[in-house]
Amino acid sequence: MIALADQFGRRIEYLRISVTDRCNFRCVYCMPAEGLPWLPKQDILTYEEITAIVAQLAPLGLRRLRITGGEPTIRPNLPSLVRMLHGVPGIEDIALSTNGVRLPEMVDALVDAGLDRVNMSADSLRADRIAAIARRNLGFDPRHAALAAEHAGLLPVKINVVVMRGINDDEIEDFARLTLEHPWHVRFIELMPVGDMRTLTWDHVVPSDEILSRLSALGSLAPDAGPERGNGPAAYHRFAGAPGCVGVITPMTHTYCGSCNRVRLTADGRLRTCLYGDHEVNLRDPLRAGDDLEPLYVRALSEKPREHNLLQMQVGGLRALSQIGG
Ligand code: SAM
Ligand code: SF4
Hints:
The protein has 326 residues and is an alpha/beta fold. It has one domain (14-321): Aldolase class I (TIM Barrel, Alpha-Beta Barrel).
């Protein structure tokens, strides 16, 4: 089956599903310390409703799903959602984005339910700094969590590092060295000016070119095709002989809009065709009313913008990624 394309010919096969806007962390670049006004429970899609939406969109070309949030692992019985989505005809790949805190205890149940891949966030390898950036000390150990995912067969384990100048950029090399020992894909993400980042400014953004030149100083680095089943915008490189890869994700200095293959479903059932901007289509209420979602989806894709204008936006002018489903 051919995926439905938007007005610019981009085939949309990939849906990111936020299952909660809540989180057990309060990362400085994502949420204020006091949290956000959380969605009321009745506004949030049930697992049955999420599955019903996916089942209606799969015949229109959806193939791959990513479960995200907020922090998806804090929503009860997450493996049961994975199992339900795994049973939808046409869905070929289910991935999870997580802060990794609960990954070691949950990973086997998630894989058993049908999870194919995981992206784990880790902004430091130092316990005190992890707690400072996340504003929570939950004993998160990135190496332990990544090993648990690797042993459970979620390959390649991808580790996302949001690089912030003067906060964790002195660990770029330490993160990169992990790829010399492990078959992990360490991806450095440029900090984005979304949400309410009172303590962060444009001065904290480290451009990917600078990251790559620092990585090159570590050893011979060659461009790499990256993971076969990746859906995303990372550009990968590999150190000679290394089992793992390093990658950069550059929302600030480059855009990938021309090859964007994704749409998003927020925890309260709104379809977002672009991460940025305000355009959302309510799928929850029509679903609850028993309406057919196909015409709404087709119209939403026809209105998917050509590209975002993040560089023109002001810091704090956009919703936090935890609210959108980052
Ligand atoms: N809680 C999960 C996690 O942290 O991986 C999933 C949701 S989180 C919103 C998804 C991704 O967005 C994470 O990799 C996080 O680091 C990234 N993110 C959130 N706010 C960001 C920002 N302001 N700039 C860059 N990346 C950001
Ligand atoms: Fe939570 Fe992920 Fe946002 Fe951090 S980035 S506060 S872990 S949703």
